[in-house]
Please model this.
Amino acid sequence: MDFLISNAYAEAGAAAQDPGIAGLVMPVAILLMFFFLFVLPQQRRAKEQKKMIQSLARGSEIVTNGGLLGRVVDLDDNFVQIEIAENIQVHVQRHSIASLMPKGTYKARKRAEKSEKN
Model:
């Protein structure tokens, strides 16, 4: 059976060596790198988002994940009612709020829309 492919025999002096501690250094380093590059920044962003959502109050100007700019009119534990235009209010879930805007952003946008109409 061995006439097409010759057999390869290992030499007795070249036995496989156990990698020991040196074999663990690279996988552990890769895991640590992923932890510091991906896990820690994600945890930090989640803490900041939670703190921002807890700090909401009436009159805060926000932007939702869907891109709606509005002013907070009413709050409860799970939902926020925001005014997106005069006499137009919508309810959104608290966790769908992307960011707080500086005071005056909503009014400046309303003024800009009125000046565009005229």
